[in-house]
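I have been asked to look over a protein record a colleague put together. Alongside the sequence sits a line of tokens, each denoting a local backbone shape. Please read both lines and tell me whether the tokens look consistent with the sequence. Take the sequence as given and treat only the tokens as open to question. I have pasted the whole thing underneath without changing anything:
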Amino acid sequence: MPDHLHALVAFSQTTSMKQFITSWKSYHAKQSDLVWQRDFFDHRIRGWESLEAKADYIRQNPVRAKLVEHSCDWHWQWEPDIPAA
């Protein structure tokens, strides 16, 4: 999306999600002269169904914004190999 980012990211128990996101946003703001929203919103994935629902939401976001007709046409989309449940 041109004005925000959706991502599915896994963290180890020793990694601070807040520190990681803050550092990542800071780096990209400096590299690309971006201004990010102040905070971020996280959603805990509790199972494969939840993962698939969030992944589908992310894939459909550029379609809902009318940037592409089909989600597979979005240039910045990446499909990870997710093992079957």
